């Protein structure tokens, strides 16, 4: 027969084994969580490197410049001094006609120059008026302003959010972009890092102020139609 002490000893060994198993399972879950966090951080690091490469503009090669210089030297035409050429004497009537043509030629050229300058000045005025018509202030709705996270409540962070929204709205009003803007364009305009700009765009999407579409060139960001209607 099994005594009571033997049963107690067996149960004690069983409980110790279960405790050791629990500790090992806890350690295994910690390792699994740390590996998962590492995969997420490494994935964001790779995407940021890819976006940073797209934002950089590589300089052109010097070989193209040298080839253009060689072509300009080869295609250069020799200058001819017209003073050394002796023209034959013609009748007085022909001389009078040539003089009249020479007198009327500068008048026509002056008229053409005036027309060109007038059109250029008008284009500049139109561009200036279009730039002034674009708004430089973003009006927040009370409900959306309350939903903004606390880390963006400072003036600098709010200014960054407003610059992104104003740039999207002004480009949409100017009809320079039909589908939207890439993150590279927004990074160039806002002079922020790619990761910081991506975080702010995600918060604006959560606030339902902008939308994101996937195209062949990448993700395109644009304002929602109801947001544009409310702000205009």
Automatic annotation (TrEMBL):
Q: Check the record and name the InterPro entries matching this protein.
A: DASH_Dam1 (IPR013962)
Region Disordered: which residues?
92-130
One GO cellular component assignment for this chain's record is: DASH complex
Q: Name its GO BP terms in alphabetical order.
A: attachment of spindle microtubules to kinetochore
Bias kind Polar residues: ranges: 118-130
- What domain of life? Eukaryota
Q: What protein name does the entry list?
A: Uncharacterized protein AlNc14C68G4764
Q: Which organism is it from?
A: Albugo laibachii Nc14
Starting at the broadest rank, the lineage of the source organism is: Eukaryota, Sar, Stramenopiles, Oomycota, Peronosporomycetes
